[in-house]
Amino acid sequence: MSLNMTEQGTLKVSLEGDWASLAIGTKDLKVLHGLVMQLALLGEGGQRISETATNQALAFMSEMKPRDAAELFLLAQMASIHQATMMLSRRLNHVETIPQQDAAERALNKLARTFAGQMEALKRYRSKGHQTVRVERVTVQSGGQAVVGTIAARGRGEVES
Predict the structure, then answer these.
(1) Coil, strand, or helix at residue 14?
(2) Residue 146 phi/psi, 5° resolution?
(3) pLDDT at 116
(4) Any bridge partners for residue 54, and if so which?
């Protein structure tokens, strides 16, 4: 999938290459269309629309292979946060005053932490909440009993007959 600006100033979305991974993320292509338009309007460096920035975001989303609309939206947010992080990184390298440096540094730190949090959220979402509890050390007092090994037990609740 790519984005191109026509001479008339309209946006053309081309379905080239392996765009199927983005379409898999949603059953309704209107969701994908709206998302592409939102990404296109992010712009870059003062431009209202940037083909390069939008195509990069779409390529990132495609590489991450979204499984549903929630992942598709989260990946779009991640691409947007990454773009803002890189912009602030560039600004930090060109500051002239301490207040400018402090502001850029704070914002850059927040964005970088947001991206890391989004990665963690995506990881948790994709794992569907599977949790593993691993006990490293067990102390058994005199007269006590311990079970060592893997235990597969259902949670408490109603029992079907």
Answers:
(1) strand
(2) -135, 145
(3) 98
(4) none
Q: Which residues of the chain have pLDDT under 50?
A: none
Q: What does the alpha-carbon distance between residue 109 and residue 106 come to, in Å, rounded to a whole number?
A: 5
Helix pair angle (98-127, 69-92), 10° resolution: 160
**Beta carbons of 43 and 84 less than 8 angstroms apart:** no
Reduced to 3 states, what is the DSSP secondary structure of residue 44? strand
Cβ neighbour number for residue 132 with a 10 Å cutoff: 4
pLDDT at 153: 63
How do residues 15-24 score in pLDDT, each as one tens digit? 565 666 677 6
Copy the structure tokens of residue 16.
């080239």
pTM above 0.85, yes or no: no
Residue 39 DSSP one-character state: H
